[in-house]
Amino acid sequence: MQGRVQLRMLLAGWLVFFFSCAAIGAAAQGVLAATPKPATPTSALTPPMGWNSWNFFAGKVTDKDIRDTADLLVSTGMRDAGYVYVNIDDTWEGQRDASGKIQSNAKFPDMKALADYVHSKGLKLGIYSSPGPTTCARFEGSLGHEDQDAATYAEWGIDYLKYDLCSYGGVMKTQAPDDPAAQNRLMHEAYEKMHQAIMKTGRPMVFSLCQYGWDSVWEWAPQVGGNLWRTTGDISPNFDRMSLIGRSQAGLAKFAGPGHWNDPDMLEVGNGRLTIDENRAHMTLWAILAAPLIAGNNLTEMKPEIAAILMNKEVIAIDQDTLGRQGDRVFADGPLEIWAKPLKSGAGHKSVAVAIFNFGESPSEMRNDTLHLKEMGFAGSVFARDVWAAKDLGKITDQYKVSIPRHAVVLLTLHQ
Ligand code: GLA
C-alpha cells in the first residue's frame, strides 16, 4: 500500500515536471524573489565538459601531468568529443609575494606558460581556490585577496574557477556563532565577492561553486554567478558512493538550465575498480542529470573500453542537449529505477532519453513494470534506440521488457 502511494507520488511529480514547467519556473522564481535574477547566461549554455586533476592525481598533480593530459585530450579524441576544460584542482598554490599576489608552487613553475600551452591545444584552463584562508588540502586560499586573485587568474589566462568552501566554514562559525542563518548569509556573500571579482577582470570564467550542497545551494547559486554548483559531498570511485550521489539528485531538475547546472561531482569513469557496467551506469546517470562531465581518470593509461564510454557520442549528446533540461526519476521499484530526460525535439516530434537502472546486487527483470511512457508524455508506441548497444529497436510499446545485470543500465532514446 505504502509502495503504491509512493509510486503515485512519484508519477504525480513526473507529470508536474513534464506538463507544468512554466508553473515550476514561476514557483522557483517565487523562492528566489528576494534576490535579483541572474543575467541572461552567456557561458556554460550546456553542462561544462572537461577533465580535473583531483580524482586521480589528488595532491600529487604537477605541471607535467597537466601538459600530458592536454596532449592526450587531443590525441585520444576527448577534446573533439567536447572535453575542453583542463582543470587544476587543489595543491597548485604557493605563497603570496610582498604585494600579496598569489604564486604557484614548485610543482607549477610558470602558470602563464602552462595556460599558453593548454590554449595552444585548443583547450581551456581551470584553476581552484577557496573563499577561506586555506583550501581543503591546507594550501593558500583567497580570503581577503579576492580581487587580486581573480586579476592574477585573468593575467595567467584562466577560463574556469572552482571555488571550494573548505576553511571558510570555520570563518562562518567564528563570525556568527550559533546563528546558522547568518552563517549562510556570510557564505552567499563570500561567493558573490569572488563573482564580482571575476566580473571586474573582464575575462569570462566559468564559476564553479563547491560547498557540498549546503543551504540548498541550487536555490541561490545562480544569483551569486554560479554556472555550476556541487550538490553533494565528494564522490569516490565505487558504485555505492556514485549511485548514492546520483540518485540523490531526484527533484533538483527544476533548478538546472542553460548557464546554471547542478553538479553531482566529477566523473570517476575509469577510476578505482568500477566495472564496465558500473562505468556505463555512472556515465548514463550523469548524462540523464545534465551534469557537468568532468572526467577524472589518468589519460596516460586510458583503456579502449573506458575511452568508448567517455566518448560515446550519443550519450554525450543526451547530456549536452540544447534544451538544457535535467532529467528526473519517473519510477522506482526497489533497485529498479527509470529516469527520463526530455530532449530537444523537431517540430511535431517529441524526444526523451530513458535510462532503466538496476542499482541492486542481482540481475533484475522488469516483470510487471512498464516503461511508463504516458508519464513521459507519449501516447501509444514510440520509436526506440538502444544507445549503448547502438541499435535501433523500431517501434516499442509500454510493455517493452528488459533484463538488467547488477549495477547495469539500459539507455534508450525514444521519439514520437
Ligand atoms: C574538496 C572538494 C574536492 C577537492 C578537494 C581538494 O574535498 O570537494 O572536489 O577539490 O577538496 O582539496
3D architecture notes:
The protein is α/β, with parallel strands linked by helices. It folds into 2 domains: 2-29 and 327-415, Golgi alpha-mannosidase II (Immunoglobulin-like, Sandwich); 35-319, TIM Barrel (Alpha-Beta Barrel), CATH 3.20.20. 33% of the residues lie in helices and 20% in strands. An 8-stranded parallel β-sheet has the order 9-8-7-6-5-2-1-10. The chain has a 6-stranded antiparallel β-sheet with strand order 11-12-13-18-15-16. Strands 3-4 form a two-stranded antiparallel ribbon. The longest helix is centred in the middle third of the chain and has 22 residues, at 180-201. The model is unreliable at 1-37 (pLDDT under 50). Bound molecules: alpha-D-galactopyranose.
Describe the structure using short key phrases:
416 residues; alpha/beta; Immunoglobulin-like; TIM Barrel; eight-stranded parallel beta sheet; six-stranded antiparallel beta sheet; 13 helices; 18 strands; 20% strand; globular; binds alpha-D-galactopyranose
Layout of SSEs?
Layout lengths: L1 H18 L1 H11 L17 E4 L1 H4 L5 H13 L2 H4 L3 E3 L5 E4 L5 E3 L6 H10 L3 E6 L16 H11 L3 E5 L3 H8 L4 H22 L4 E5 L17 E3 L8 H9 L13 E3 L12 H13 L4 E3 L8 H7 L2 H7 L8 E6 L2 E8 L7 E8 L5 E2 L16 E5 L4 E6 L6 E2 L3 E8 L1
Parallel strand pairs: 1-2, 1-10, 2-5, 5-6, 6-7, 7-8, 8-9
Antiparallel strand pairs: 3-4, 11-12, 12-13, 13-18, 14-17, 15-16, 15-18
Bound molecules: alpha-D-galactopyranose (GLA).
Précis, in short:
The protein is an alpha/beta fold and 416 residues long. It is 33% helix and 20% strand.
